[in-house]
Write a structure and sequence with these properties.
heterodimer; A: about 350 residues; mainly alpha; Fumarate Reductase Cytochrome B subunit; two-stranded antiparallel ribbon; 15 helices; about 5% strand; B: about 130 residues; two-stranded antiparallel sheet; 7 helices
């Protein structure tokens, strides 16, 4: 038992109970209208404030990660992506980072084998993260059908592709698979379970994991689980649900009757995630674009990066020093860069 | 820093994307679809099973019917009340619910559901009166 993940788990459990009890005692308006609006407001304002705060802070040092040969002579091949010297290189590096999580792909694991130290490629974090993020993206896009009327054709196409595999189990006693099984939901649930179990099981990862690392994972598990439950098992009145969600985005909020409590639990989890977002590690959504280790040019040898925080210090260079004390230095027999006569000549020449 | 304009541009683009459902609908209220029952369906009062069950699980029972008819060759379904029905989408379901456009399609379109019933079945042609 670890206090950190138990804390996160209990927090999600409490959220679940709040929404369940709230929906059961008739607080549908609170959980169906007030909380979602509040959550979206917190998300938008919090996100904006955070990014504006970041935009005001300086980048004191040039700290691009150098994953390859920097650009030098023409006859030395430079790593254009891993140590980009051009803006196009930086752009491509960012594109690959954002869409393919390239830095997670570098994940290695240390291993002692017959007394020797080995580093081996550990690919599963990368695979899990890719599966998780893309499944989540698909799920979010799919949910747009509850917020748009009429539903655009591109979303309908996405749904068709997502439900490509018809997984249907038909027995008189047990049926599963209708409405059509969406692959993204299953992948999301599997990936979030893997990422959570990975944190708990691997000792070195558990050691650096905090409650704020477990909480989003468990919360997203709750979201995916309640979503899958109300699609395939404890079915809700989907048109009533769409009436509510569409009412929210058309600014005509209504609370139709007959939506099960599970819908309000799902919605409350999502609202919690939105409101929690700007204050948590989930801000890597915006932060990835502002990572100096990724978005700076790897040209630290060619150009000097001036810290914008530098205080304007008045310096007294050696030239100025010699100018001031030349006569005394010559008198004392100290070596000078410019002898007295030459200095006098240049001074005369200037006039 | 001169990056500030890029950061703010990115932020504005992000907010436009996030708030897409709000400006896509532009505050227009959309009335939910209402099921229209034909006179025959109204007269029958109850479907094969209870209304609540049919509302949530009609696709399951249709799927089960297909399985039983196609794989086992049985064509008669007896509900818990002892009433018997011929298991047929076109001849039994659409006999009462002869208004496919108002009964099936309205809700399916609203919820963006595209059932594959109509890949094989056709809506029975209406007799001209």
């Amino acid at each position: 038992m670890n206090r950190k993940y138990m804390f996160a788990f209990i927090a999600v459990l409490v959220l679940f109970l709040i929404a369940w009890i709230g929906a059961s005692i008739g607080l549908q308006w609170l959980f169906g209208v007030a909380v979602p609006y509040l959550a979206v407001l917190i998300f938008v304002v919090g996100f904006t404030r955070k990014v504006l705060g970041w935009s005001r802070s300086a980048v004191p040092f040039a700290i691009p990660t150098t994953g390859g040969q920097a650009k030098s002579f023409d006859w030395i091949q430079d790593a254009k992506l891993d140590n980009p010297s051009s803006k196009f290189g930086v752009f491509m590096r960012m594109v690959l980072e954002v869409f393919a999580f390239r830095s997670l792909f570098r994940n290695t694991r240390m291993k002692l084998k017959e007394g020797k130290l080995f580093y081996q490629l550990e690919i599963f974090l990368w695979v899990g993260a890719l599966a998780f993020h893309y499944a989540f993206l698909t799920v979010v896009l799919r949910h747009m059908r509850f917020f748009l009327e009429p539903v655009p054709w591109c979303l309908q196409m996405l749904e068709t592709v997502d439900s490509f595999f018809r997984i249907e189990i038909i027995y008189p006693q047990f049926q599963f698979g209708l409405p059509a099984v969406y692959l993204s939901g299953i992948v999301l649930l599997a990936a979030v379970v893997y990422l959570a179990v990975r944190r708990i099981v691997i000792p070195s990862v558990r050691y650096i994991s905090l409650a704020s690392d477990y909480f989003p994972l468990i919360l997203i598990f709750g979201i995916a689980f309640t979503g899958i439950m109300m699609r395939y098992v404890a079915k809700i009145d989907i048109n009533a649900a769409k009436q509510l969600t569409l009412g929210l985005v058309t600014l005509h909020p209504t609370v139709p009757d007959g939506i099960g409590a599970i819908f309000y639990i799902h919605l409350f989890f999502v609202c919690t995630l939105l409101a929690y977002f700007p204050f948590s590690k989930l801000m890597h959504l915006g932060g990835i674009f502002l990572s100096p280790t990724r978005n700076m040019l790897g040209n630290t040898r060619a150009y000097r990066h001036v810290n914008p925080w530098n205080y304007p210090v008045h310096v007294h260079s050696y030239d100025e020093y010699e100018e001031e004390f030349r006569e005394k230095m010559v008198e004392a027999g100290l070596p000078v860069d410019k002898p007295l006569e030459a200095a006098a000549e240049t001074a005369a020449g200037k006039e | 820093m001169n990056d500030k304009k890029w950061i703010i541009t990115g932020l504005v683009v992000f907010l436009i994307i996030v708030l897409f459902p709000f400006w896509y609908n532009r505050g227009k209220a959309v009335p939910p679809p209402e099921i229209k029952l034909t006179d025959k369906a109204k007269a029958a009062k109850e479907c094969v099973l209870s209304k609540e069950y049919m509302k949530a699980e009609h696709m399951q029972i249709l799927d089960l019917w297909r399985e039983v008819v196609v794989r086992e060759g049985q064509r008669i379904y007896t509900n818990p009340k002892g009433k018997s029905f011929v298991m047929s989408l076109s001849n039994t379901c659409l006999d009462c619910h002869s208004n496919k456009a108002d009964f099936c399609d309205k809700c399916h379109n609203y919820a963006s559901v595209r059932p594959y019933c109509w890949d094989c079945h056709i809506e029975p042609p209406k007799e001209k009166s």
